[in-house]
Amino acid sequence: MDANSIGAPPRDVLDHLRRTVEEDWALARRRSWGEAGWLEAASALGDGIARVVGADPGEIVVTDSTTINLFKAVVGALNLRPKRTRIVSEAANFPTDLYATQSAIDLLGEGHALVLAADGHDSDDDLCALIDSNTAVVVLSLVDYRTSRRRNLARINAAAYAAGALTVWDLSHGAGAVPIDLNGDRTDFAVSCTYKYLCGGPGAPAFFFAAARHNDALDLGLKGWLGHADQFAFELGHRPAAGARRALIGTPPVLSTIGLQAAMAVWAGVDVSAAAQKHEALSSLMLDLTDQELGPFGVSVASPRHYAERGGHIALRHPGGNALVEALADADVICSFRTPDSIRFGFSPLTTRYVDIWDAVARLRDVLKNETWREDRFAGRSSI
Amino acid sequence: MDANSIGAPPRDVLDHLRRTVEEDWALARRRSWGEAGWLEAASALGDGIARVVGADPGEIVVTDSTTINLFKAVVGALNLRPKRTRIVSEAANFPTDLYATQSAIDLLGEGHALVLAADGHDSDDDLCALIDSNTAVVVLSLVDYRTSRRRNLARINAAAYAAGALTVWDLSHGAGAVPIDLNGDRTDFAVSCTYKYLCGGPGAPAFFFAAARHNDALDLGLKGWLGHADQFAFELGHRPAAGARRALIGTPPVLSTIGLQAAMAVWAGVDVSAAAQKHEALSSLMLDLTDQELGPFGVSVASPRHYAERGGHIALRHPGGNALVEALADADVICSFRTPDSIRFGFSPLTTRYVDIWDAVARLRDVLKNETWREDRFAGRSSI
Fold it and tell me: Is B170 a catalytic residue?
């Protein structure tokens, strides 16, 4: 039940890896950069992801980590709004997103200021109210990593656009779970990991989205040979590749990319809207069963009740915290804990079954009933 | 014969990958970040590499790509020399190193200028002559990717130190092949890929070295949660981790890291100086056989004759260029071509046998004798 941390492995991922090691790496060797598609994978996989999140071919590449991609996106946005000095985010954003945003400001900024909605309970309207005519970019996570609250992508994008600002979204806790329509909702930039609901494998390369309308003037700051218009010309100066490919920097981690390739081969056969519907049904079942089975033991629901306001996981709340999560792991239910009090269950539309949710809730009920978790072995500390 | 492009796979790399997929990813799931050592690998592998390149434990981490690590190192060096505005490199440096250096200057710089030794034939003394009292950092590749010329690490580090400047070295075409003593030669920063002579697998995470004496004040510019002093405390502001770990940014690509782990398990049993001696003997044999067997067909040696001035590969020169390389591939000898005229043969001290060199030279002689390469199918274009 930790699809929000790490999605399940595709059934044939080891076959993909075996072919890569035994044929492409051991025998074809450097020629595999071309013949096995190692260099082209960044775009090929990006196009597959584009179908899942409502983008167009050429707008997404797979590269680097979410943090590095967010840095590039914020630099790109700041370069497109050179006269504006205000950057809006929220203190409840995932910490590394704030570190990357602050990194961009520190490196590029001249009198720039990061303005944070601060109390963690700000509504979408509260955030929109922070966007003004001096705002260059709004940097937000679509889904809160603790509570699973989902922001209204369309509304915040519209408010930013109306003020002449740009948006950078981190989709990590939503992509592959909830419906996302990047272009339909007029998103400027987005990034996401691929190892949660997309099932790309631990630390699989993240993705980077830039709306095609920004291509001409897009300067992402940190540049490398993979993002050059003609990589093997070995030119002295950098000329950006077309579209999102300019976000590529260095040599891609092939084995990790192959893991994601196995996952995207599965996704290629998935009806994306049917998957989102299943995800809604799975997480709604979790809410209903929680109320019915766990409420009597003092468990409450931290996540929003309306599906449109929820992301990939359901966060429960109980003073037992991490000790409960560890007791559940002993009962073969893997979930995770985030301070101060979020117990998170993530549901993959590709792999989670309804019966899994029933079993997980039943085992949590048994743990609470038997009070076996009270040792408090790990209390108060977020899970790895 | 393309160990300079991609080293051979460790014999048991698939066993490592199988365990990672079937046990750590599929079953232990998010707990593997701790229990399977996924988070700790950056330092554990870095310490293994430290033994190979003359660094101390804690000074090297494995992370990101060479280009991104070079960017961080240059930013770190510029931040340590805030009043100096001159950056020295050479136009013959590997292009992405120049792109990353220029990226750092464009983002951070105020009146900074990149000064390039320009003709590709500059001696170490020529480079030292460019270092002055306004030089913040010298950014060089230890080994030229075309000719294999090796710079004198100690001499250039000493010249930089005497002028109060810092050095950033890209070791990609040397690490795991030639003897390197980073601390003995008083290096400030170094980066390298791990997929050539270190055999970490295609696009395996690169490494980052910062001399421990710089730890206290080191600000690498681009920061993320993996480089935080307490990653799972989820603090609002970034506090750098100790030592080189502050260079970590986002979630590491685990499958690619496991490939490198299999390689470093091999390296753990290697006598590093014996490996370097074997590498010298291999590449000297290549020179001797080239003179004896290929000289009559118009093949010349582009690489230096003295081993101390050579890196991991031997570059030959012939007007046939890429067509020869492709004809050799048809004869099951994989080497590579770099414009304008470098035919590169890379030798791994771990995997290349003396007989392999004899066979490669004999097949190249046969290709030249039979003139089967004259189709010029790929003339003038660098190999992928």
Answer: yes
Give every residue of chain B whose pLDDT is below 50, as ranges. 378
Same domain, A246 and A283: no
Query: What is each CA distance from A292 to A74, A284, A288, A341, A360, in whole angstroms?
Result: 44, 12, 6, 20, 14
Which among B25, B99, B201 is the nearest to A9, CB-wise? B25
- The verdict on B238 and B126 lying in the same domain is yes
In a domain, B73, yes or no: yes
Closest chain B C-alpha to A191 CA, distance in angstroms: 13
Same domain, A25 and A99: yes
* Chain B contact for A315 (CB, 8 A cutoff): no
Q: What is the pLDDT of residues A313-351, one digit of tens each?
A: 999 999 888 899 999 999 999 999 988 888 999 999 999
Cβ atoms within 10 Å, residue A372: 14
Residue type (1 letter), B64 = D
CB contact under 8 A, A30 and B204: no
- B288's tokens: 């001797």
Can you tell me the distance from the alpha carbon of A45 to that of A38, in angstroms, rounded to the nearest whole number?
A: 11
Same domain, A178 and A162: yes
Find the domain containing A322 and state its range: 272-371
Do residues B256 and B290 both lie within one domain? no
Whether residues A256 and A312 share a domain: the answer is no
The catalytic position among B122, B170, B188, B341 is B170
Q: Which of B211, B239, B267 is the last residue of a domain?
A: B267
Annotated catalytic residue B185? no
Classify burial at B235, counting beta carbons within 10 Å of its beta carbon; exposed 0-12, middle 13-18, buried 19 or more: middle
**What is the model's pLDDT at position B157?**
98
Q: Does the active-site annotation cover B195?
A: yes
Taking the CA of residue A2 and the nearest CA in chain B, the distance in Å comes to: 7
> Does some domain include residue A151?
yes
Question: How many residues comprise chain A?
Answer: 384
Domain-embedded: residue B8: no
How does pLDDT run across B230-246, given as a tens digit for each residue?
Answer: 998 889 999 999 999 99
Instruction: Indicate if A252 and A318 belong to the same structural domain.
Output: no
Q: Total structural domains in chain A?
A: 2
Q: In this complex, which of A25, A91, A96 lies closest to B6 when CB atoms are compared?
A: A25
Report the gap between the CA of B153 and the closest CA in chain A (Å).
24
B114 Cβ contact list (under 8 Å, min separation 6): B87, B89, B98, B101, B102, B105
Task: Give the CATH number of the domain where residue A252 resides.
Answer: 3.40.640.10
Give the residue from A200, A235, A267 where a domain finishes: A267
> Does the CB of A66 have a partner CB in chain B at under 8 Å?
yes
Q: Is residue A126, in this structure, part of any structural domain at all?
A: yes
Beta-sheet pairing, A86-90 with A135-141: parallel
Q: Please state the pTM of the whole predicted model.
A: 0.97
